[in-house]
Design brief:
It is globular and about 60 Å long. A hairpin with a 2-residue loop joins strand 6 and strand 7. The chain starts with 16 loop residues before the first strand and ends in a 5-residue tail after the last helix. By secondary structure, it is α/β, with parallel strands linked by helices. Helix content is about 30%, strand content about 25%. It contains ten helices and twelve strands.
């Protein structure tokens, strides 16, 4: 897919995003398309998880492998992610954490040469099956990136952007206020909504990106190291916000900060890098996945124990 500004092929995620480049700002935004309801069990007409007594997983990953060109990046991942919980993905650099989280809303397809094998079942439906539209997938599964990436627009227009191009017919002022309140930002910006989002602090910009994500009412929020570029106070606010949001959303977070994973997550996946001694080829594997309390106190695999205890990483 092309990555131009704006690129309608990349206008697919509930979180429209921008990225600074040497040539200016590259913008990813949502493609205008009619509302579509995923034909999967456990999802309401608005696309939100309705839940059930058995609470089936929001994602079931089966034999997932990812290639960049001919190079294997992630091998044979199997895991279930449960609804309305925070799932952390941890591991050393280069083990495929960001590759894995981008599989959950098909963001890897924006990388030339990327190829996915296996299945990612979202409420029982394989999002990689033929005929599944990534535009629809990304409406239900939003993403917040590592660095805050607000549009060069007003605070108000950043939040309203996704809803507006999706043809939202309700009260836009109410939607913007509700989204900013849920992102714990309203009280700080309510008197300056026409101000450029680029004038906000880094922590405020990241919360604005979260408000932009939830304004289109996704079912899942993916966060790829959302606090890595923030100071400790801003990081604490993001972590507190995640705890509030998990009451309504399923959250998957990539983090290099093991203390953060231990503080905020309910379940943790540990990825590690395997190396082919003959060719020096490297790829990521899922070593262990389970309740965060067990992963950090009684891991089943020696590699997990070594990593969480700081022996490598």
């Amino acid at each position: 897919m092309k990555e131009q500004a704006p690129d309608t092929q990349a206008m697919n995620s509930p979180v429209a995003s921008s990225e600074a480049t040497s040539g200016g700002t590259r913008v990813y935004a949502q493609e205008v398309a009619p509302p579509v309801t995923l034909s999967v069990a456990g999802v309401s007409e608005e696309g939100r998880a309705t839940g059930s007594p058995a609470e089936p997983p929001v994602f079931s990953v089966r034999n997932l492998s990812v290639y960049y060109g001919k190079n294997l990046a992630l091998k044979d991942v199997n895991m279930d992610i449960r609804p309305r919980r925070i799932t952390a993905i941890i591991g050393p650099s280069g083990c495929g954490k960001s590759t894995l989280i981008r599989c959950f809303n098909r963001m890897n397809e924006l990388i030339p040469g990327a190829r996915v094998e296996g299945e990612v079942l979202y409420h029982g439906e394989n999002i990689y099956a033929p005929g599944v539209d990534p535009v629809v997938v990304r409406r239900h599964i939003g993403m917040v990136f590592q660095r805050p990436n607000p549009f060069p627009k007003s605070i108000y227009e950043n939040v309203a952007f996704g809803a507006r191009i999706n043809g939202y017919k309700g009260d836009m002022d109410e939607l913007v206020e509700r989204s900013l309140r849920r992102a714990a930002l309203w009280d700080e910006v309510k008197n300056q909504l026409k101000k450029s989002a680029l004038d906000l602090s880094g922590g405020q910009q990241q919360r604005l990106c979260i408000a932009r994500a939830i304004a289109v009412e996704p079912d899942v929020i993916l966060m790829d190291e959302p606090a890595s570029a923030l100071d400790p106070i801003a990081t604490t606010r993001i972590e507190d916000l995640m705890q509030e949001l998990k009451q309504d959303y399923s959250i998957v977070i990539v983090t290099h900060n093991m203390q953060q994973a231990a503080r905020v997550s309910d379940e943790t996946a540990f990825l590690y890098t395997e190396v082919d001694e003959a060719t020096s080829a490297r790829w990521g594997i899922l070593v262990e996945f389970g309740p965060t309390s067990r992963i950090f106190t009684k891991p089943l695999d020696k590699r997990t124990e070594d990593y969480v205890s700081g022996r490598f990483g």
